[in-house]
């Protein structure tokens, strides 16, 4: 299976991609811990089957100092002991926000209450935007069949602004 298109080599695709990346930079600069951001994006990418994003966020999680054990266990976070209650709340929000078509009620009140218990409004705003953005990125990658394996940490550092 070959990639259908490189959006970043298309003039309009690159223009839109730059703006898309600026939203991601704002999320990265929030008070939400970077290693947690990477784990959440990795989990959504696993659910959505985006090879490029799984590659990207596994490598970025490593670069952010995340342990291999935690990013290997993120797919089975409910059955593991390496995540805090706050991280579990964020992972539940990520999964429920990603599986909207599977869960007709979207994010449950129970999950939302757990998130509210562990995070302030700024971190919740970052969480909500992070879930929305990674799901959009996953869809872009899946639609154009952007394959994983070639990402190098920091390779898009100059893309924004």
Descriptive overview:
Pfam families: CMD. Residues 24-96 form the Carboxymuconolactone decarboxylase-like domain. It comes from Actinomadura fulvescens. InterPro entries: AhpD-like, AhpD_core, CMD-like. The chain is an all-alpha fold and 161 residues long. The chain has helices spanning 11-28, 34-48, 51-63, 68-73, 85-98, 109-118, 121-143. The protein has seven helices and no strands. Helix 2 (34-48) packs parallel to helix 5. The longest helix has 23 residues, at 121-143.
* Alpha carbon gap, first and last residue: 33 Å
Q: Which segments are poorly predicted (pLDDT under 50) over 5 or more consecutive residues?
A: none
Mean pLDDT: 91
Supply the CATH superfamily name of the domain at 33-143: AhpD-like
The rounded Rg comes to: 15 Å
Strand coverage percent: under 5%
Q: What's the architecture of the domain at 33-143 in CATH terms?
A: Up-down Bundle
Q: From N to C, what is the helix and strand string?
A: HHHHHHH
């Amino acid at each position: 299976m070959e990639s259908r298109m490189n959006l970043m080599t298309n003039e309009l695709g690159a223009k839109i991609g730059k703006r898309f990346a600026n939203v991601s930079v704002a999320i990265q600069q929030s008070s939400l811990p970077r290693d947690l951001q990477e784990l959440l994006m990795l989990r959504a990418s696993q659910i959505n089957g985006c090879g490029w994003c799984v590659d990207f966020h596994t490598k970025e999680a490593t670069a952010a100092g995340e342990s291999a054990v935690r990013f290997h266990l993120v797919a089975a976070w409910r059955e593991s002991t390496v995540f805090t209650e706050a991280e579990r709340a964020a992972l539940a929000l990520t999964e429920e926000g990603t599986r909207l078509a599977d869960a007709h009620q979207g994010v449950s009140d129970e999950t939302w209450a757990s998130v509210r218990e562990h995070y302030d409004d700024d971190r919740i705003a970052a969480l909500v935007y992070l879930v929305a953005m990674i799901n959009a990125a996953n869809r872009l990658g899946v639609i154009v069949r952007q394959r994983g394996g070639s990402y190098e940490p920091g390779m898009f550092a100059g893309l924004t602004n």
